[in-house]
From TrEMBL:
Gene3D superfamilies: Aspartate Aminotransferase, domain 1 (3.90.1150.10), Type I PLP-dependent aspartate aminotransferase-like (Major domain) (3.40.640.10). It comes from Myceligenerans indicum. Keywords: Aminotransferase, Pyridoxal phosphate, Transferase. InterPro entries: DegT/StrS_aminotransferase (IPR000653), PyrdxlP-dep_Trfase (IPR015424), PyrdxlP-dep_Trfase_major (IPR015421), PyrdxlP-dep_Trfase_small (IPR015422). Pfam families: DegT_DnrJ_EryC1. Belongs to the DegT/DnrJ/EryC1 family. It comes from the Bacteria. This is DegT/DnrJ/EryC1/StrS family aminotransferase. GO terms for molecular function: transaminase activity.
């Protein structure tokens, strides 16, 4: 990530927002001014408007804006009935917050291994993980493509599905639009995401009006009416009005941004398809949105070092599987328990990917990767 002063013109990172801000500055600042001038700074027209527009975009009945993606997962799990001590089946090959959210509400993450081709939850292994304490399944639509939720349900039956859509805004899988195939779905608008705010934000979508009502209560201390906590105490997890108004602006360009990401992916495939790199495979029935463009090489660390020497700073998502982290030692997993997940952690890395990435930077990246691979070979 380039910061002012570190010769931004020479360093290429996996993500940056300054080119976007330069392009959209007037619209963004006008959105901020609309909120500040509205006379209402918390849970006003911006959050309400964004919720309606985001629900419509996904073709779902309801959307509840929250303060970040981690809380979106927490609230979604609680809204579908997950209680302390319950087991939630997910993957270890994801951002730590997926598991942190499960842990924070007192539930227990149970990890399925992932597929060697798409890096997504291996649905075929899920059946063996179901116990009498399993209360929910949390598939992660990793890197921008979707787990086949229909096939997952063939295995999990009536267990509620909560989708982790933090990386899959606008993606479509074999079961439909990400965010429209679970009992509830959690989104993050962390700035790097496919739809990113200028700060933190999140949302939960659902088709069920009862779930929506529970979510609204949970994000607002547990209250329906002001000053009175119903049923159970909740959280303070409101989406900020300023971020909501900025997100409304950015939602209008989301399809365009996704198209730009797909063009960049296409260019990487053309420029790197004949090298020894493993490039992303799109699963059947998937329309990938390329939150990340993740490649794979057995000598990843050496490759990244050579690239860093050329001013190309790439990133690894994710270098440590969650089940091997000290902070999750209490779960009792050992290295070797999830072989595909562990192998991927040693080999994957992400190429620069964001809608305003210039052609020049794409070409420089491709050339540098080719050079580095020639050195390694
Ligand atoms: C970003 C992310 C989250 C967490 O979102 P925050 O807004 O940072 O809390 C959760 N799950 C996945 C898969 C993510 O990529």
């Amino acid at each position: 990530m380039s910061t002012p002063g570190d010769s931004a013109s020479r360093t290429i990172g996996v993500w940056g927002y300054l080119a976007e801000y330069e392009r959209d500055r007037d619209e963004i600042l006008a959105a901020v001014d609309r909120v500040f001038s509205s006379g209402r700074l918390v849970l006003g027209d911006a959050v309400r408007g964004f919720e309606e527009e985001f629900a419509a975009y996904h073709g779902v009945g309801h959307c509840v804006g929250v303060d970040n993606g981690t809380n979106a997962i927490k609230l979604a799990l609680q809204a579908v009935g997950v209680r302390p001590g319950d087991e939630v089946i997910t993957v270890s090959n994801t951002a730590a917050p997926t598991a942190v959210a499960i842990d924070e509400i007192g539930a227990v993450p149970v990890f399925a291994d992932v597929r060697e081709d798409t890096y997504l939850m291996d649905v075929d292994t899920v059946e063996d993980l179901i116990t009498p304490r399993t209360r929910c399944v949390l598939p992660v639509h990793l890197y921008g493509q979707c787990v086949d939720v229909s096939r997952l349900r063939q295995v999990t039956g009536t267990l509620p599905v909560v989708e982790d859509c933090a990386q899959a805004h606008g993606a479509t899988g074999p079961a439909g639009r990400a965010g429209a195939t679970g009992e509830a779905a959690a989104f993050s608008f962390y700035p790097t995401k496919v739809l990113g705010a200028y700060g933190d934000g999140g949302a939960v979508t659902t088709q069920d009006v009862g779930t929506e009502r529970t979510l609204r209560r949970l994000r607002y201390y547990g209250m329906e009416e002001r000053y009175y906590v119903e049923k159970t105490p909740g959280h303070n997890a409101r989406l900020d009005e300023v971020q909501a108004e900025i997100l409304r602006v950015k939602l209008r360009r989301l399809d365009e941004d996704i198209a730009a990401r797909r063009r960049i992916a296409q260019r990487y495939h053309e420029g790197l398809g004949d090298t020894g790199l493993t490039l992303p495979a799109v699963g059947p029935g998937n329309e990938h949105v390329y939150y990340l463009f993740v490649a794979r090489h057995p000598r990843r660390d050496h490759l990244l070092k050579l690239l860093a020497d050329q001013g190309i700073r790439l990133n690894v998502s994710y270098p440590w599987p969650i089940h091997t982290m000290r902070g999750f030692g209490k779960l009792g997993y050992r290295a070797g328990d999830l072989p595909v997940t562990e192998r991927l952690a040693d080999e994957v890395f992400s190429l620069p990917m964001y809608a305003t990435l210039t052609r020049d930077d794409q070409d420089r990246t491709i050339a540098a990767v080719r050079d580095a691979l020639a050195v390694i070979a």
